[in-house]
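User: I've been going back and forth on whether these two constructs are worth ordering. Before I decide, could you fold them both?

Assistant: Sure. I'll take them in the order you sent them. The first construct and its structure tokens:
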Amino acid sequence: MRILIVYASTDGQTRKVARFAFDQISDAGHSVALIHASDANPMDLSRIDGAILAGSVHAGSYQSELGEFAEAHATALNRMPTLFLGVSLCAAGDDAEDWKDLNASTQRFFDDAGWTSGRVEHIAGAYRFTEYNFFESWAMRWIAAQKGQEVDPHENKEFTDWDALKTCLANWLEGVARQD
């Protein structure tokens, strides 16, 4: 199978998730292309068997370049098996209001693009203090404090469940193979 992964990342965790997906799919014996959304237009998707789009939520929105890709290729994406990996710190918690906002952000992304993914998986993100500037670091410490989390502003803290993501990808690939 030929799988396309298009991603956009702000602080690097979504890039790490996309590379993990690339490795898992390659190791399963499939042909896979990994492309940053800003490099993905224009693109012919006619020879692609399935696509994964990955982005992260910041201030209620996914990256604009990922949205532009999804909108430009909505017709083709709507005709093939797709998986949307939404990376966020909200997915690390169980606050009902956070999940409501996360789901609303994802639905707004799909509505704006005119595309709806066949499967959506929310992936817990990370605090990446080594990548933040002073103001981002302060804001992330404040957010963590509001959620009752202790963080060290000198260390990154990752919440991504790699085993769950591996299972998700394997299950999605099985579905793509059944549609082939």
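The second construct, handled the same way:
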Amino acid sequence: MAKVIMVQGTMSNAGKSLLVAGLCRIFKQDGYRTAPFKSQNMALNSFITREGLEMGRAQVMQAEAAGIEPSVLMNPILLKPTSDSGSQVIVNGEVLGTMKARDYFAYKSRLIPDIKRAFRKLEEQADIIVIEGAGSPAEINLKEQDIVNMGMAEMVDAPVLLVGDIDRGGVFAQLLGTILLLEEEEKKRIAGLIINKFRGDKTILEPGIRMLEERAGIPVAGVVPYMELSIEDEDSLTARFDRKAEGLIDLAVIRYPRISNFTDFAVFETIPGVSVRYVASADDLHQPDMIFLPGSKNTMDDLRWMRQNGLEAAVKKRADSTILFGICGGYQMLGSRISDPDGVEAGGSIRGMELLEVETVLQPEKVRTRVDGTFGVLEGPLKELSGMAISGYEIHMGETRMGEAHVRENCREEGGTGNVSVLNAGAGWKRDGVFEQNVYGSYVHGIFDREGIAVKVAELLAKRKGVILDTGAVLDYRSFKEMQYDKLAAVLREYLDMDRIYKSLREAKIQ
């Protein structure tokens, strides 16, 4: 059986995902086959495995840190919020249905066999499994039949590292308060406390650490400094959304309420002089060099939100001079109409932004597929991307059809003219996306990730603007991420008590 350790937090965004990734990297560096695991994830950023199954991107990032292929075994349950009170429930990578929060709470214990099966299979592939909790283990209203925090730890007999975020303040109250609300058997599982995101001189904390250890009866296993890393995250509380500075080349991503897969644009953050801002109001849009409309878990409602707060008008006003690129739900919004005859979202239909001659019909069956291919024969400001190799995945619940006039005038057979990309999705070649002047749309998540594409886009924008970017030393995205994981591991080795963590590892024991 695999050795196992679990990272839980005092709250959401305490840094659990990164700490799990860092531990995965350390164990990999030390020669162990390591895998991440999160029984239940709630996120709108998701990924499609080679088998066409859907999982949360946090476990994909952690798998990358561990140097292994992402597998749905690492995240057997994924909840994708569709409203303030309901989520799409994905089990073992496939859609089970959409449930209200109360209905799911009553149902979730029936998923324990799925969790145990996934964990058992993952054990066959790993020496060490690093488990991530969700939110806080002390949420009294959620503790009954818990399957993701202490309930998960009990299922696999896992020791727990409890993490608090000092950057938000009140870290000692966070940690002590969480411990006080746990049952005695749950407290015994906590092998160490971690203070995360600390800025300053650690010696200032020593009186507080002594008090914490005395009152909790649990050792502090590390004080981890605040780290400036560029590693993908998936939480709606991500610090990425707070960035306001505008670089020499300024990219604006529309941040609607149900934004999904915003990791599509993280690759641009690796380029010096390029800023990526997430914009939620017309006043904050300013004059970016390129505007992205990302994916959405509720495309029609998010389009209505843009229409009501003035962002749609602001984006359309800039369409003649600024490059627009929509991905997945953003691509659907750019068309002339979105219809929902089967009530996939809220039913009915809505006028689109009318910037591309396409119409979308939402359908109950979700498209989930990995794709490889090339950009088509493009025109307009992104013409130089034509023919460049791309790879990524599609995940959507709709079919987008081109208008007859567009097909007749633009889509000749040779070379993908009139389409953003030509793809091999495992069942033959197909065309994806359309473009008109400065406006481009595609279903491919990760379309900018392949080597050279994001840099080429940035260089084209710089040329258009009459400025020069220094892109000579930019690494390909995969190499850049490997460096970030190594940096994360090095910091954790320095500031965590790894001897204590290794000693706390136990063999998993699933009944």
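Notes on the second construct follow. The chain has a mean pLDDT of 92. The longest helix spans residues 477-495.
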